[in-house]
Design goal:
Length: 150
């Protein structure tokens, strides 16, 4: 009898040593849902991205001068802002497609004529208090200028 219990214990120990690492949680440094150091949620807005000394960024990104033009426009021409539902607002992220619950409200023509990025193949729409720069070909959000619409 003693010999049989020893073999069973040894077999159980072997099975647990093989499956143990597969059942472990991810360490904190691994990122993702189990870790705390993965990619940040949501896309970077203008304020959090790096720009060169002249305020320019690549692609459909908005420069500091463009942000100033946009803010000044909405100070002079206030638009009634309806806030987005919290779930949809959280889904706005740079590089992601536009969430399906957002009705496209195109930026005013006067503003699009003043901001170069809105004239060069990018689509500028208003979503709540934010202005989104969309890649019209792929339907993804190229940039978000947060808190400019008044």
């Amino acid at each position: 009898m003693r010999r049989r219990n020893g073999r069973a214990a040894l077999a159980l120990l072997a099975v647990l040593s093989i499956t143990g690492p597969a059942l472990a949680d991810k360490p904190d440094w691994a990122g993702g849902p189990g870790g705390g150091h993965g990619k940040p949620q949501g896309g970077p807005s203008y304020e959090s991205r790096g720009h060169d000394s002249k305020g320019r960024a690549s692609g459909g990104s908005v420069s500091r001068g463009d942000v100033t033009i946009i803010r000044d426009y909405f100070v002079a021409h206030p638009v009634g802002v309806t806030s987005l539902p919290p779930g949809i607002a959280k889904k706005l992220a740079r590089g992601k497609p536009l969430p399906p619950g957002i009705a496209k409200k195109v930026a005013p023509v006067e503003l699009r004529q003043r901001v170069p990025v809105c004239m060069n193949g990018w689509e500028c729409i208003l979503a709540g208090a934010d202005m989104l720069i969309l890649d019209a070909v792929h339907g993804t959000i190229a940039d978000i200028v947060r808190g400019v619409v008044r």
